[in-house]
Write a structure and sequence with these properties.
Distance between the termini: 34 Å
Helix content: 25-40%
CATH architecture of the largest domain: Beta Barrel
Order of helices and strands: HHHHHEEEEEEEEH
Number of domains: 2
Largest sheet: 8 strands, antiparallel, barrel
Strand content: 35-45%
Number of strands: 8
Length: 215
């Protein structure tokens, strides 16, 4: 897909008018029209704003297809977490923008209006895909003002690329080093079922859990 076609495709997919996209990118609607016609290309600062507004990477905006697994788009994340010593499973939507082997994560709150009181928060992070081992390594931090939490991720990516199981560890509500299981999946059902299958695992995880929606 040519770069100008990419802008129009994702703009329509996101339900944005040319005027609204122009507002988000800091240009005029006429400029957006020129980009989509292919008569003009955006400058780098504008391209960054366009990619952010469209929820895609600069690589995707340029019309370059990734040679590895396609991991961008809408996912679900399920976490084993704690607040005041009480275990809780949090599941929420997660948007992933892929730029080659780098994944930019934007996670929503799982607990709605009372999220912060319950030890839940919106967050951002990054993962890097290591193709030889099929693993994802990265970091996260809270995106909510006043919430001091951050840490690291390790995930094993399933061979089919539709879900990943791993561990998070970091500063959290219940201590300076807190850890738990986490699952990323293309569907909410898989995320929750895989998390429930591993959350009480004390030994090394040697095989992929078989659940109703992943078998």
């Amino acid at each position: 897909m040519a770069a100008n076609d990419v802008i129009e495709h994702y703009r329509i997919r996101k339900g944005l008018t040319q005027s609204r996209l122009a507002e988000l990118a800091g240009v005029t609607a006429r400029q957006i029209g020129r980009y989509e016609e292919g008569s003009q290309a955006p400058t780098l600062p504008v391209a960054v704003k366009l990619a952010d507004a469209l929820g895609i990477s600069l690589t995707e905006l340029a019309g370059r297809a990734s040679t590895g697994p396609s991991l961008g788009g809408e996912w679900w994340a399920s976490w084993q977490t704690w607040k005041d010593g009480e275990e809780r499973i949090d599941t929420h939507p997660l948007h992933i923008a892929q730029d080659g082997d780098f994944l930019i994560l934007d996670g929503e709150r799982a607990q709605g209006e009372n999220a912060l009181e319950l030890g839940d928060y919106a967050w951002v992070g990054e993962l890097r895909l290591h193709r030889d081992t099929g693993t994802l390594l990265g970091w996260y931090e809270s995106n909510d003002e006043g919430v001091r939490t951050a840490g690291s991720y390790y995930f094993a990516l399933h061979p089919q690329g539709q879900h990943a199981i791993g561990i998070w560890a970091g500063l959290d509500y219940d201590g300076i080093v807190v850890r738990g299981w986490g699952v990323l999946a293309r569907s909410q059902a898989v995320a929750e079922q895989q998390l429930l299958a591993v959350k009480d695992q004390k030994e090394n995880l040697k095989t992929w859990p078989t659940t109703a929606t992943s078998s």
